[in-house]
Amino acid sequence: MTDYKKIVDDFMVDVIAKNPGENEFHQAVREITESLVPFIEEHPKYKEAKILERMVEPERVIIFRVPWQDDKGEIHVNRGYRVQMNSAIGPYKGGIRFHPSVNLSIMKFLAFEQVFKNSLTTLPMGGGKGGSDFDPRGRSDAEVMRFCQSFMNELYRYIGPDTDVPAGDIGVGAREIGYFFGQYKRLKNEFTGVLTGKGIQYGGSVIRPEATGFGVVYFTQEILKTMGMDIKGKKVAISGFGNVAWGVVRKVDELGGKVITLSGPDGYIYDPDGVSGEKIDFMLEMRRSGRDKVQDYADKFNVEFYPGKRPWSVPCDIAIPCATQNEVDLEDAKQIVKNGVKCYVEAANMPTTLEAMKYIQENNIPFGPAKAANAGGVAVSGLEMTQNAMHLSWTPEEVDKKLHEIMINIHNTCLKYGKEGDKVNYVKGANIGGFVKVADAMIAQGIV
Ligand code: 2IT
Q1: Ligand 1: residues within 6 Å at CB?
Q2: What is the pLDDT of residue 203?
Q3: Contact at 8 Å (CB) between 162 and 90?
Q4: Ligand 1 centroid vs 251 CA: distance in angstroms?
Q5: In order of start, what are the domains of the chain with their CATH numbers?
Q6: Quick check: 294 and 241 in contact, CB under 8 A?
Q7: Distance of CA 95 from the midpoint of ligand 1 (Å)
Q8: Verdict on whether the full-model pTM lies above 0.90
């Protein structure tokens, strides 16, 4: 019998040696490698072409200085990144993150995940990611604008509608995309679809802000369907209160479920009546305030606030982490399993540690991995690129229908590659399903 574990371990020794200290990148690569090794052993063409070895090496990494001046005239220097991971099936595509934790490891894990995610959408997009360790918290509008302009003064050389199309991520929303777009247009004297997540007035797509969250819930619905269940009447615990969380809350509410927790860096709130109506709008206000405190919700609506804690001890039917990488560890996973959740779906990118993921799967709880579940965001970005290229715009109904179809397709791909007896291994299904299209394109294009 082939010793898959040894093949994975040997492969990881090389990856770790070549990319020292990049723990998040190692984690993302290990997870994918564990799914892919048995498949690659069965399909020697991928092994002979060294596809996985090529995929873990970014096509290009750009690191640059981002100097800027604050409102008091003081000069600051941040570091900018763009990781152009894989362009086999389309131009590089992926968000830009502004957060003090941003470093090369985080950029590379996100870019690597993005390659598989974008492939799963069925749209022609390669994978990339960018960002900066800039902390937007407490910064004025003018400061954010100057920072975005400085960032684009360097990045513009490396992107373009047929080369690399950035979008938002943590800390980058419609405002920042607007500043990026304005600066790019000024530098290149071109009005093109070089960024997605733009405002509706200048080429943005309807539904893009809510797309990631809506897609997560459509995907969750498909998982529940395989178990003969429905989201209606279900209690949903989520973390975060940003863009992704907001989309999840809106769709769960619309479909008759109840989101009972939200969280921030300061702790979590428990709202047994569910987040709905004006409470959903208040999520936007909390984000706009730039305070980054979920306690504001508890103060406003008189619900319980648990400082410094994560929401995973709250009994619920469905758990959906919507905040950031590695926010669910083994202890959290044990709580989640003990509380008897019906399914666990990742809305943030890689929010679950490897140990926590394995624990949830071993306990026979369907585990929807981010690269499948949260692909709706980038899918609608892909639809935005199409609308821009055609110089037209679709209606909300058209975009939402396409998004829903894409999420059902992704679920079908997971079933196709992830069925294990009467169960579905969604992690394996998503990893193999995302891999095949990229790998076949790479083989067809030769040794490049
Ligand atoms: O993680 C993600 O998929 C995103 N931040 C969205 C990327 C995009 O290009 O819309």
Answers
A1: 93-95, 117, 167, 169, 196, 349, 377-378, 381
A2: 98
A3: no
A4: 19
A5: 60-191 (3.40.50.10860), 209-365 (3.40.50.720)
A6: yes
A7: 4
A8: yes
